Structure formats: structure tokens, C-alpha cells
Amino acid sequence: MRIFLSSVISGMETYRAAAQRAAETLGHTVTMAEDFGASPFSPQQVCLGAVRDADIVMLLLGARYGTPQESGLSPTHEEYREARASKPVLVFLQENVSREPAQQACLDEVSTWERGGYRESFDTPDSLSAAVIRALHRWELNQQAGPVDEQDLEARAAAMLPRPPSHAPGVPLLHVVVAGGPTQQILRPTALDDQRLHRDIQREAVYGDRPVFDSQHGVPAPIVNLSTLVVAQPPAEITLDEYGSVRVSRPARDPGGRSPMASGISCLTEEDVRERVADCLRYAGWLLNRADPTNKLSRVAVACRLTGAGYLPWRTRSEVAASPNAAQMNLSNSEFAASPTVVLPRPALLYDGEKLADDIAAQLRRQLK
Question: Domain 2-142 is in which class?
């Protein structure tokens, strides 16, 4: 594999050399900033290009943050931001050092987004060498199911979206699907019958930080249809299959469809839709972590469809407040609106979900308004 090694250089020379030797002992090729000669491009452009060309990025975080660039971030921080959206990032934390405040903030960001995956600690060059070998070996084991086929992921996510309306007229539903890859069985058939899993799913759906069920109504006992677990609170529904694929369906508006800000005509409120999509994404991320705690699934395809929109107008909260009893109807009578399927690193479900929900809501609006 092609590995890019990212860290501050000054003061970390012996550690960088140790990490390079360890990776090359396993037969990999390591690229570092020291390798780049004269170039018509800036050092920033060259290093970020090397990140994009790499298969894996190894990130060493010690005491120093580095010199901020025009972006306000250090080169190492910029390289991490460039990598995390599309590359595995193996994080190595130096112990027993006093970190600069900016470096601690960078570490907090890395720790939150990575959710602790692929992290090792070191205090000497020898311990770093051993940590690099362990991390690369663990990553290779996790990839034995095969590479991620993004087209297959997108197709699996799209196949889980409902097509004909399966609910009462006048109840528009949001359906958010998350399919993980590389494609492999995550849950044995018997695991879908686990009562602890059932209770956890119900509890998080009703009482979690971002609930997707109504706490004022009960939740019937989950059922297992062949290889899929179904937990429902009609018309809302959660499904989980043996491959770790999740679908969360819930109403796109409150009963009656009126904004809580004002009485008036029924409508779809953009902010409500966006918040409900974000809740669905966060719940799907939580459920995926519950079903696959060892992170066998490294990437996810996300798809969303809104069904049953009918003639409902699409409005913002400010539009509702300004004119609660007048709105332009959706003259297309479009029953469906869908966002394009996107493939993302798995942690993005929990930590970039708000941005993804913004994009999905914007795409639904363009089709319905």
C-alpha cells in the first residue's frame, strides 16, 4: 500500500523514521514531506496531493501543533481534514507530553470523528514501531472481506427505499437508508432474535438523544422477517438486516402538518424535514455501531426518499410565520422526492450528519417547491 505519514517534522524526526521503517518492513511504500524535491507547486499543494494519492494516512500527534497556514490550520491538520473524507486514517498518540492548546483541540477533533478506531499510543520510537505494525495488521485483517464496491453499496441502498406509498394518504414519510461495506454478514440469524438488541433498539428510538419514535405511544414487539428485523410504531418503522443495512422511516411532519410556530394550512416545513433527516442519520449511525462494534463496515451509502408529499406546499418556518394561511401548492402532485445516493466514511453518519441533512433537505426542496 501507499502510505502518507503526517506529523510536524521538527522534534519528531526519530519517530517519523521509526514509523517509516515499520511500515516498509511490512512491504508498504511510505511517502513523507521530506521526500519532495523542487516543484512549481506550493508545499501545501504537494502534500495534499500526496494525501489524495495514498491508500492510508498515518497521523502522528505529539506535543506541537505546527505553524498555521492561510486556512488557520497547521499542515498536519490540513492533511487530516483532506484524508478523513475518503481515506483510512491510522492515529498514533504520543504519551506523557504536554500538548499545545491548538494541538489538543486538533486531537479532540480527531478523537471525536474517528470514534476511537485505529488508534494506538507510543512513548518511544520502538513502541511507535510496534504500534504501527499492530495497526496496519489490524487494518488488513478488517479488509479481508474485500474492497468496498461503491456501486454495489449504492445499489443496495437504493433497493431498500420503498417505492409505492405504504401508508395512509396525507402522511408524508421520510425514508433514510444506510448500507455498509465491504458487503459481508454482520449479524448471524440468531443475533436478530436477541432480546437485548430488541430492547436497545426500542429504547434508543424512543428515549435516545435523537429519538425517531413518539414517546407518547407504545412500540409493538419487534418481528423478524427472514433475515430482517423490523421494529415499528406505525407509520414509523426501523429495519436492520444481517448485512448491517438500516432503514429508518418516520413522518416528515407533526400530526396535522402545521408548524408549531403558528396555526394555518398543512405544509412541509423545511427546517422540520432537515431536523428529522438528521435524527434518522444519527439513529442509523448509532444502530450500525450497536450491530457492528468492531467496525467491519468502513464505508456507508446513504439514500433518502420522501413519499406521500402529494400537493403539500414546501415552506420555511419564516414563511409560515409571515403567512400562515396562504401558500403556493405543489402543483406537480409529486408523490416522491429523493436525494442522490452518496458514499461516505462511516463516522460521517454521527459527526457530519447535520451537513448531510442540510444537503438532503436542499435536494428535496428543489424537487418539490
Answer: alpha beta
